[in-house]
Write a structure and sequence with these properties.
Blueprint lengths: L2 E3 L6 E3 L14 H15 L2 H18 L7 H15 L8 H11 L17 H5 L4 H18 L4 H11 L2
Antiparallel strand pairs: 1-2
The structure holds zinc ion.
Length: 165
């Protein structure tokens, strides 16, 4: 079976007949299908949704920077990680702040994605079948993604804090 490597997160999966991603993320169709499964699990579980849905969306987006993924999207999702992980904002309070940032920042800085081999990706989240385990894995995933982008942390803080202060 032919293995497909996701260009964003490095996830290796057997090639399947998957619909292409319905967006611009730098991802493989196989990785995108796993992400869709994880989102579906979160939409059907209030605890998961409240605690780690936003972190999952932001981690997945940032991990799939590059290629056709526009700077604005990468920058907004980096802001989401910054708000939760550095500023301690509740994940459910993040979307309105991101909307303000999305409307206010212009031009969007271009950040070169880090040359990193991630050890955690969306597949690790999909493979956990308990709610506490899912939450813990998303938190580890988000921390790894945010840490990998450390060379851009100061720039992210600058445009977020200018809007959200
Ligand atoms: Zn991927």
């Amino acid at each position: 079976v032919e293995e497909v490597i996701c260009p964003g997160c490095g996830l290796e999966m057997p090639r399947r007949e998957n619909a292409p991603p319905d967006g611009y993320y730098n991802t493989s169709p196989e990785c995108w299908s796993v992400y869709s499964e994880v989102l579906a699990a979160q939409y059907s579980n209030r605890m998961l949704f409240a605690q780690v849905h936003q972190l999952s969306v932001d981690s997945y987006a940032v991990q799939h920077a590059g290629g056709p993924h526009p700077d604005k999207s990468v920058d907004v999702h980096l802001a989401g990680l910054y708000l939760v992980l550095e500023r301690g904002i509740r994940p459910t309070a993040v979307p309105p702040v991101l909307q303000r940032i999305a409307a206010a920042v212009d031009p969007w800085p271009h950040f070169t994605p880090p040359a990193v081999q991630y050890s955690i990706n969306v597949s690790d989240v999909a493979l956990v079948d308990s709610t506490p385990g899912h939450i813990e894995m998303v938190k580890r995933w988000a921390a790894e993604v945010w840490s990998a982008w450390s060379m851009h942390h100061a720039d992210v803080a600058r445009y977020v804090d200018r809007v959200n202060s």
